[in-house]
Amino acid sequence: MREKVDHHTKKARTRVLIEQGARKKRAFYEQYIGSSCEVLFEQKMENGNWVGYTPNYMNIEVKSTHNIHNQILPVKLKGSNGRALIGELVTQDR
Known about the structure:
With about 90 residues, the protein is an alpha+beta fold. The chain has a single domain, classed as CATH 2.40.50.140. The protein has 1 helix and 5 strands. The protein has one helix at about 5-30; strands at about 35-45, 50-55, 60-65, 70-80, 85-90. The chain has a 5-stranded mixed beta barrel. β4 and β5 form a beta hairpin. The model has no long low-confidence stretch (mean pLDDT about 90).
């Protein structure tokens, strides 16, 4: 193949694909706002929020003062912060 795509065209195409992926992710996440799901919590962030994942790998953040590491807990999904869905633990007794 002799003709190559120039660097600026590659960068522009990459930017379009990344933006399209972000839009699709937001649309996918937004359809779950208001619903409840089970979340496996994996780590605590510096801001004190816990991060976990649903069975279909949606990134979820919740506030909890309890250690919920490696626990699967029900979460009500309230909104999004651009990188993850924001949820609230359904039961606060943990």
